[in-house]
Amino acid sequence: DAKTTQPPSMDCAEGRAANLPCNHSTISGNEYVYWYRQIHSQGPQYIIHGLKNNETNEMASLIITEDRKSSTLILPHATLRDTAVYYCIVSRNTNAGKSTFGDGTTLTVKP
Amino acid sequence: GAVVSQHPSWVICKSGTSVKIECRSLDFQATTMFWYRQFPKQSLMLMATSNEGSKATYEQGVEKDKFLINHASLTLSTLTVTSAHPEDSSFYICSARGGVGDWPYFGPGTRLLVL
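^ Those are the sequences you sent over. The predicted structure of the assembly is below.
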């Protein structure tokens, strides 16, 4: 699976959009981009995933660049409960779950 | 969304004893389950992958005789930490996947403290 690079930490004001970047320059054509988050002392929570098109669900939007070498997770209206570590993972869907979790981005939403 | 549970949520045991952790998929059949370990302020580390009815595949460096994994049914996998020692104290998390191509759902984790 391709390696990902994320900033170690980010701050965001409550109510504003949180944009979390992820670089995955070695991504292969059949690899998906998955996003999970882990709130302190809990198991990771699935957020969203995509292959090449932008995706949106009730939690977030995923923007994947045309060359697929990077992506951005957008939380449109961050709340204090969105404070967590966000992990970007690249994996073939047949390998989903077996992938390496990097260090992620610690997002702190501030009032 | 799909629900994965773990039991117990936390356990304290004496050094040398064995501890069993259960992972259940509550509303779907999990053909594959994964076990992770997470030390404080670190990321998740995959320990092993188990498919229902077959032997688990362990990641490099994980002792299969120490961390026994059983995936006897499509809704239950167990991780047994045998002869636990203080260095085994960690947060153990499972995830379950319904089928190839499905994204996995994670359990809430089990915190193990070995005294």
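The first strand of chain B starts at residue 4 and ends at 7. Chain B touches chain A through 26 residues (CB under 8 Å).

Shout if you want it in another format.
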